[in-house]
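Ticket #4471: structure export looks truncated?
Reporter: QA, pipeline team
Priority: medium

Steps to reproduce: submit the single chain below to the structure queue and open the exported record.
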Amino acid sequence: METFELANLTISQPSYEQSLNFTRAKLFVVTEHGSKLWYIELDGIMDEALLRRFADSEEIGVDLRATTVGGRALAGRGYFHANPLHRAAAIRGEDQLEGYGRQSGA
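Actual output as written to the record:
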């Protein structure tokens, strides 16, 4: 498993785009039996309206763009699982994460 601290993260849906403010965001890339999966954990999200939007909706699919603390640009698609009570969220990745590859570190 590899982990990357994220410096910024923007999510979007049709006619909606939001840069997220958070205290911590970490990308996890897991390789198991030759396949990769990825997810992002976010803590310290103070935007209550954003968390409510996704907690109350069945439409949680998002496109995302992010930059790691080391400067690597990433993009992908995932599902935004909001946890308003803890001011947190998780994004479960779907398919490939563009920008992630053989390059190590970041």
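Status: closed, not a bug. The export was complete when the record was re-opened. Leaving a note from the reviewer for reference: The mean pLDDT is 93.
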